[in-house]
Structures are given as structure tokens and as C-alpha cells.
Design a protein that fits this description.
Layout lengths: L2 H40 L4 H37 L2 H7 L4 H4 L1 H36 L8 E6 L7 E8 L4 E10 L3 E13 L4 E13 L4 E12 L6 H4 L11 H12 L6 H31 L3 H28 L5 H21 L4
Antiparallel strand pairs: 1-2, 2-3, 3-4, 4-5, 5-6
Length: about 350
């Protein structure tokens, strides 16, 4: 590693860290003033809880801001080097543009891997904790947790429909469970269903459990329910796993939840898009450096204003392409892996094409 490599690496890392912290601070300030403060005031939320919320949410903020921060860092560092004729001197000294780009590209690759590792390591757990604080303290920021709920293809062939279900308490009213067997049909009507955390099972209260003969259309058994265990075995955590935001889970956990849903006939095309996005989003930092290098060498002069303006334009175009591709993926028009990676591939191809045509 040459002195020039160490210099460019140090400059890139320094600007990258400062840009990340700036973006994170701006997001927290704007989010608090425009969104969180009214709810915090309405519910008398202590400032310590607000600080906790943003502390847990900060890894996700940094993860989302990472690609744009990498783009800004690349534009600023290499643009400054070009403006001060450092790039010209290196090229005149026999250093190729590819060799010159080696240091910032290495930083971008390491940063992409670090972003993925941190998000998988504790980022998902942190955002899950932030979601918990949001549910518990900022009630109006969430929809009413009480509503109808249905689960199909449960263990033993059961289907469960609950007219009024409270996800916070894991209790429901007016539950209907049924199972169609080879020679009989079972149906359960209960006024109440609830999850007993201590025993780890569902219970039914005040209802009837009826078994019909499928061929004779006659009642074989009719039991009154005062309180008894329900026949479904899945826990609330398993039943609601695919309903939780993908960012609250690691990639392996999300894949496991998707396969669980597939085994019960639940459509999972949209979930597979979210799974592949977990890999494509960190990789975007590596893509952005290939756009930053040719733009920085072409812009040369202009400093922060030009670099930031170029970053915003590139980010808007990327988000547009990414949003369109993932939208098509979520509705099943294109394969999930294509939906998640299309924007990255297109921008990487553009970056390489511009880089190869950069005058030296």
C-alpha cells in the first residue's frame, strides 16, 4: 500500500464518518420536530424514552444513509484531489486511473461488508426494540391493534378466524376454528381465545366443539366449552412472524419465516423481494463509489455544493428505479432477485461505463 493509497483511504473514511453523522443528526432532528414530538407530548413520554428510541433506531438510520454517504464522500475526496491537481500528478507519474481508484473502492467494499454485518449483527435487534418502544409509548403512531385475524393451514389442518383480535394482549373474541378430515368435519365456536404465556398454548372459553359426519351430514360429537386448550399449536410469535417488518429480522430469520409461510400456502413472493433487498442495499455503497469517481473527476471544481447536488440527483434517480423495480417484484411481475438487484446492476454498469471513458 502506497502513501497515496493511505492518504486517499484516510480522507475517504474521515469524510464518510462525518457525512454519516451529519445525515443521522439531521434525520433525528427533523423526525423529532415533525413527527415524534407531538406524540411524545400527547402521551407524556419521558425524554429518556425518546433518547432510547433514537438510540435503538440509529443503526437503521446509518444503514439507510450509508450509500448516499459513500457517494458524497467519494465525490468530495476525489473531486478535491482532482481540483488540487493531485490526480493529474498521479497520472503523470505513471499511476493508472484504475490503480488510483483502488483505495476508495477498497473503502467502499469494506464499508458495504461492514454495513451488512452490523445490520445483521445488532441492527435488526435494535430496530425491533425501537418498534417495541414505539408501540408501548407512542400509541397514536400505530394503527389500532384490534382487528380481524385469520390463519390457514395450521398444524393438524386447522383454520382459525377471529373477528376481534388484540395483538398487544394476544386475546381475541368470536373465534371460529374448523378442520376438514377424510370422514369428519370439526368446527369450534368460542366467545374468547387467548394465549397463555406461562403454559405456552392457546385456550378457548365459552363455546362449542362440534364434529360432523361428512357423508351423513349428522352430528357425531357436541361438546360444550367452558375453558379448554385450543387445538392449534403455533405460538403468536410464529403466527405473526411474516407480519413483522423485514428490517426487524436477520436475513436467516426472514428466510425461515418465509419458508414457514410457504408450507402453509401463504403467498411469499413479496417477502422474497424483501429478503434479497437485505443483500442489495448494503452492496449499493460499493456501487456508488463507481459513480462517484467519474463524476468527481469530471466536475473537478465546485466543492461541497456541486458534490452534494450531484449526490442528490443520483440518489433520486436510483430511488426511482429501485422503487419501480421492487414494486413490480412485490406484485409478482418480475422475479424477487431481479427486483432487488436491478437498480444496483444498472447503476454499476453506468458507473463502470463512465469510469472507462474518463479522460486521463
Amino acid at each position: 500500500m502506497t502513501t497515496l493509497d493511505r492518504y486517499l483511504m484516510g480522507q475517504t473514511v474521515g469524510v464518510l464518518v462525518k457525512t454519516l453523522l451529519t445525515f443521522a443528526g439531521l434525520f433525528v432532528l427533523v423526525d423529532y420536530l415533525t413527527d415524534l414530538r407531538p406524540d411524545a407530548a400527547a402521551h407524556n413520554v419521558p425524554w429518556t424514552v425518546v433518547a432510547q428510541y433514537y438510540l435503538y433506531f440509529s443503526p437503521h438510520i446509518l444503514f439507510e444513509a450509508a450509500p448516499l454517504a459513500m457517494l458524497v464522500a467519494g465525490l468530495l475526496v476525489l473531486g478535491k484531489a482532482a481540483e488540487h491537481n493531485e490526480v493529474t500528478a498521479a497520472l503523470a507519474g505513471g499511476i493508472s486511473l484504475y490503480r488510483l481508484a483502488w483505495a476508495p473502492v477498497l473503502v467502499a467494499a469494506g464499508f458495504a461488508l461492514l454495513s451488512f454485518g452490523l445490520e445483521e449483527g445488532f441492527g435488526a435487534r435494535a430496530i425491533a426494540e425501537a418498534e417495541r418502544l414505539e408501540r408501548n409509548y407512542f400509541g397514536q403512531r400505530r394503527d389500532d391493534p384490534r382487528g380481524s385475524q385469520s390463519w390457514v393451514n395450521l398444524e393438524g389442518g386447522w383454520t382459525c378466524h377471529i373477528m376481534k383480535y388484540n395483538r398487544l394482549a394476544n386475546t381475541g373474541e368470536d373465534a371460529v376454528l374448523h378442520r376438514i378430515g377424510s370422514d369428519a368435519v370439526e368446527q369450534i365456536l368460542a366467545d374468547r381465545i387467548f394465549w397463555d404465556e406461562g403454559e405456552g398454548r392457546w385456550y378457548l372459553e365459552d363455546g362449542r366443539w362440534v364434529v360432523f359426519d361428512a357423508e351423513l351430514n349428522a352430528i357425531l360429537e357436541d361438546h360444550r366449552i367452558t375453558q379448554r386448550p385450543a387445538p392449534i399449536q403455533e405460538s403468536p410469535q410464529a403466527l405473526f412472524a411474516i407480519a413483522e417488518p423485514p428490517e426487524t429480522k436477520r436475513a436467516a430469520e426472514l428466510a425461515e419465516d418465509i419458508r414457514w409461510a410457504e408450507g402453509r400456502g401463504i403467498p411469499t413472493h413479496s417477502l422474497w423481494v424483501d429478503y434479497h433487498v437485505k443483500f442489495s442495499r448494503p452492496a449499493l455503497s460499493f456501487v456508488m463509489i463507481w459513480l462517484a469517481i467519474p463524476f468527481a473527476l469530471r466536475l473537478r471544481r465546485g466543492g461541497l455544493a456541486i458534490s452534494f447536488g450531484a449526490s442528490i440527483v443520483i440518489a433520486i434517480v436510483y430511488l426511482l428505479v429501485f422503487s419501480v423495480s421492487t414494486a413490480f417484484g412485490h406484485v409478482g411481475q418480475i422475479p424477487p432477485v431481479v427486483a432487488a438487484w436491478l437498480a444496483n446492476v444498472l447503476f454499476f454498469a453506468v458507473g463502470i461505463a463512465l469510469f472507462s471513458r474518463t479522460p486521463t
